[in-house]
TrEMBL record:
Chemical reaction(s) catalysed: [E2 ubiquitin-conjugating enzyme]-S-ubiquitinyl-L-cysteine + [acceptor protein]-L-lysine = [E2 ubiquitin-conjugating enzyme]-L-cysteine + [acceptor protein]-N(6)-ubiquitinyl-L-lysine
Species this protein is from: Medicago truncatula (Barrel medic)
Pfam families (alphabetical): Ariadne (PF19422), IBR (PF01485), IBR_1 (PF22191), UBA_ARI1 (PF21235)
RING-type domain mapped to chain residues: 143-356, 147-191
Pathway as given in its UniProt record: Protein modification; protein ubiquitination
Gene Ontology biological-process annotations: protein ubiquitination; ubiquitin-dependent protein catabolic process
Protein name: RBR-type E3 ubiquitin transferase
Region ranges (Disordered): 1-62, 535-565
Taxonomic lineage of the native organism: Eukaryota, Viridiplantae, Streptophyta, Embryophyta, Tracheophyta
Enzyme Commission code(s) on record: 2.3.2.31
Family assignment from sequence similarity: Belongs to the RBR family. Ariadne subfamily.
RanBP2-type domain ranges (all copies): 569-597
UniProt feature, compositional bias: Acidic residues: 11-40, 47-58
Keywords, sorted A to Z: Acyltransferase, Metal-binding, Repeat, Transferase, Ubl conjugation pathway, Zinc, Zinc-finger
Length: 597
C-alpha cells in the first residue's frame, strides 16, 4: 500500500491545527498545553477509565500521547533560526557572518560543535573549512592582472579572488559558480578554482558574481541544508508540503502532525502509526506491496501443469483440464495424471478414483498440506488487511466530512441555532477525534496480524479491547454523523441542541480517553495478561468496568456494544450520557460525573 494515500486531506483548514500540532496563529503552543493540562486535570477526577488498562502506569506514560515534543517550521521560521545560529557563532567567535555560515555548514549547523572545535584548535578548523587568514597568492600592485582560467589580462577592478588571493575574471567566476550550482547542493562547499587551493567561496562572492537564477538556486540549497543536515529537523513528507519539523527526541512519542494536516512518524517518516512500532509497519507495508501474497494465492487456488509447470486455475466443474498453447497438455485436475489414462473406469469427468486411492496411501499429503497452509495464511492476511483498509477508507471519509463541516455546515448551523461558531467547536473536535481514532484503529489490525498465535490469552484480550474500541468509536461517529443531521436540516433553534452538545462532547471525551489507554496498553505489550495466560486483576477489572459487548458468544472484532447489553448485569448501570458501565453502588457516572437517573 502507498502511505501517500492519506495526503488528499491536506486542504483541511489550519484552524484545527491545534488538535494535531498544538499551535495556531491565534493560540500559541504554550497556551494550548495549558488548556490541555486543564482538561486532563478534569478528566483525572474520573479514575475508572485510567484503571481500565493500568492504574499503576507512571505519569510519563500517562501523558505520552498528549505531549507536544515538536515544532512546525514555515520557511520564514527556518530563515529566522538559520540567521540566529549564524549570528550566534559570528558573535562568539568574532568572525564575519559569511565565515560563520561556512563553519556551520561544515558542522551540520550544530552551534555547539562549531564552538567546541574552534576553541580546541582554531588553525586546524580554518584549514579544514577553507577560512584563510592570509592570502597564499600576493597580487602585485600592477595595472593589469592575468585571469587564472582564461589567461586574459584585466584591470584589477575586473578581477576578483577568494581569501587565497588567486585572481580570476568576473566572467570565469560566473561560469565556475554557475556550473557548480547546477551540479547540486555540493556548491555550498565551493572552493577556489585552483586545484591546489582549498580556500572557501563565501556567500558574498556568490551574490556578487552569480546570475540571478543561480543565486536563487543557491539560496534554496542553503535553506534545505539547514533542515537536511540537522539531525533535529526533517521536511514533512507530504507531497507539496514545504514545512519542516523540529523534533525533541527526549520523549517516547514519535508521531508528528504538520500544519498541512498530515501526520507522520519522525523515526521512519511513514504515516503516523501508533500503537504499532516502526519495524512492524515496515513489514506490513512490504507485505501489502510485495509479491508474496500473489504467490500464496497462486499456491492456494491453482496447480502447475504436469508438463510445462505453468500455474492453472480451475474455472469450471469438470476435472478434465487442457493447458494453454503451445503446451496443450490434457490432464486430470485432482491427480495431475494424463487425461488419456482417465475415463468412466476412473470416475468420469467429475471424480478421480486414482486420486482418492493415492490420497488414502498418503501420496498427496504433503502437497495438500502446503496448499491448505497457503490457503489459511491467505485467509488470515485477508481478514486483517480488509479491516485495515476499511478503517483507512473510513478515515478518509471522515476527513472529507470534517472539511465539509468546516467550510459549509458550520456557518449554516451557527445561523440556524443562533450561536457563534466559537461555541460550535465541540463538533469539530469530535470529527478530529474520529479521524485520529480511525487511524489508531487501522493500525491495531497490523498489530493483531503480527501478534504471536501461541499467546492465546493476549490475543483474546487484544481482540476484546479492539472490539470495545470499535463499538465506542461507532457510537461517537454515529452521533456526529447521523444525529447532527437533525439540527442541520432544522429551520430554527432547537431546545435539544444543548443536550446534543453535552452528549457529543461526552462521547468525544470518553472515546479519547479509551483510545489513549488502548494505545498505551498495546505499546506496553498487553502486560495486563500474565505469562500463564490469565488476565491480571487490572485486566479483569477492565472488563467489569467496560461491560462485555460480545456476550457469551466470544470476542469478535468490530462487535457493537449496546446499552441493553450493558444492563444485563444487575450490579451495573449504564450512563445515559456517555454509556459508561458503572458499578451498581455508584450514584454518579465515574466517567462524566452525570448523576444516576
Amino acid at each position: 500500500m502507498d502511505s501517500d494515500d492519506m495526503h488528499d486531506a491536506n486542504d483541511v483548514e489550519s484552524l484545527d491545527d491545534d488538535f494535531y500540532s498544538g499551535e495556531t496563529e491565534d493560540a500559541p503552543m504554550d497556551d494550548y498545553s495549558d488548556d490541555y493540562d486543564d482538561d486532563n486535570n478534569n478528566n483525572n477526577n474520573n479514575d475508572a477509565d485510567d484503571d481500565y488498562f493500568d492504574d499503576g502506569a507512571d505519569d510519563s506514560a500517562q501523558s505520552r500521547s498528549t505531549e507536544i515534543n515538536f515544532a512546525i517550521l514555515k520557511e520564514s521560521d527556518i530563515r529566522d533560526r538559520q540567521e540566529d545560529d549564524i549570528s550566534s557563532v559570528a558573535t562568539v567567535l568574532s568572525i564575519p557572518p559569511v565565515a560563520a555560515s561556512i563553519l556551520l555548514r561544515h558542522y551540520n549547523w550544530n552551534v555547539s560543535n562549531v564552538n567546541d572545535a574552534w576553541f580546541a584548535d582554531e588553525d586546524r578548523v580554518r584549514r579544514k573549512v577553507g577560512l584563510l587568514e592570509k592570502p597564499v597568492y600576493e597580487n602585485p600592485d600592477a595595472k593589469e592582472l592575468t585571469c587564472g582560467i582564461c589567461f586574459e589580462a584585466y584591470r584589477p577592478s575586473k578581477i576578483h579572488n577568494a581569501s587565497c588571493g588567486h585572481p580570476y575574471c568576473f566572467s570565469c567566476w560566473g561560469g565556475y559558480i554557475g556550473t557548480s550550482i547546477n551540479d547540486g547542493p555540493g556548491c555550498l562547499m565551493l572552493r577556489c578554482p585552483d586545484p591546489a587551493c582549498g580556500a572557501a567561496v563565501d556567500q558574498d562572492m556568490i551574490n556578487l558574481l552569480a546570475s540571478a537564477e543561480d543565486k536563487q538556486k543557491y539560496d534554496r540549497y542553503l535553506i534545505r541544508s539547514y533542515i537536511e543536515d540537522n539531525k533535529k529537523t526533517k521536511w514533512c513528507p507530504a507531497p507539496g508540503c514545504e514545512h519542516a519539523v523540529n523534533f525533541d527526541a527526549g520523549g517516547e512519542n514519535y508521531d508528528v502532525s504538520c500544519l498541512c494536516s498530515y501526520s507522520f512518524c519522525w523515526n521512519c517518516t511513514e504515516e503516523a502509526h501508533r500503537p504499532v512500532d516502526c519495524g512492524t509497519v515496515s513489514k506490513w507495508i512490504l507485505k501489502n506491496s510485495a509479491e508474496s501474497e500473489n504467490m500464496n494465492w497462486i499456491l492456494a487456488n491453482s496447480k502447475p501443469c504436469p508438463k510445462c509447470k505453468r500455474p492453472i486455475e480451475k474455472n469450471q466443474g469438470c476435472m478434465h483440464m487442457t493447458c494453454t498453447p503451445p503446451c496443450k497438455f490434457e490432464f486430470c485436475w485432482l491427480c495431475l495424471g494424463a487425461w488419456s489414462d482417465h475415463g468412466e473406469r476412473t470416475g468420469g469427468f467429475y471424480a478421480c478414483n486414482r486420486y482418492e486411492a493415492a490420497k488414502q496411501e498418503g501420496v498427496y499429503d504433503e502437497t495438500e498440506k502446503r496448499r491448505e497452509m497457503a490457503k489459511n495464511s491467505l485467509e488470515r492476511y485477508t481478514h486483517y488487511y480488509e479491516r485495515w483498509a476499511s478503517n483507512q477508507s473510513s478515515r478518509q471519509k471522515a476527513l472529507a466530512d470534517l472539511h465539509q463541516m468546516q467550510t459549509v455546515h458550520m456557518e449554516k448551523l451557527s445561523d440556524t441555532q443562533c450561536q457563534p461558531e466559537s461555541q460550535l467547536k465541540f463538533i469539530t473536535e469530535a470529527w478530529l477525534q474520529i479521524v485520529e481514532c480511525r487511524r489508531v484503529l487501522k493500525w491495531t489490525y497490523a498489530y493483531g496480524y503480527y501478534l504471536a498465535e501461541h499467546e492465546h490469552a493476549k490475543k483474546q484480550f487484544f481482540e476484546y479491547l479492539q472490539g470495545e474500541a470499535e463499538s465506542g468509536l461507532e457510537r461517537l461517529h454515529q452521533c456526529a454523523e447521523k444525529e447532527l443531521q437533525v439540527f442541520l436540516s432544522a429551520e430554527g433553534p432547537s431546545k435539544e441542541f444543548n443536550d446534543f452538545r453535552t452528549k457529543l462532547a461526552g462521547l468525544t471525551s470518553v472515546t479519547k480517553n479509551f483510545f489513549e489507554n488502548l494505545v498505551r496498553a498495546l505499546e506496553n505489550g498487553l502486560c495486563d495478561v500474565d505469562s500463564n495466560g490469565a488476565a491480571t486483576s487490572k485486566a479483569t477489572s477492565s472488563k467489569n468496568a467496560a461491560g462485555s459487548s460480545k456476550g457469551k458468544s466470544g470476542r469478535g472484532k468490530g462487535t457493537k456494544a449496546t446499552v441493553s447489553s450493558r444492563l444485563t448485569d444487575d450490579n451495573e448501570w449504564s450512563c445515559e450520557q456517555c454509556t459508561y458501565a458503572n458499578v451498581g453502588s455508584a450514584t454518579a457516572c465515574a466517567m462524566c460525573n452525570q448523576e444516576r437517573q
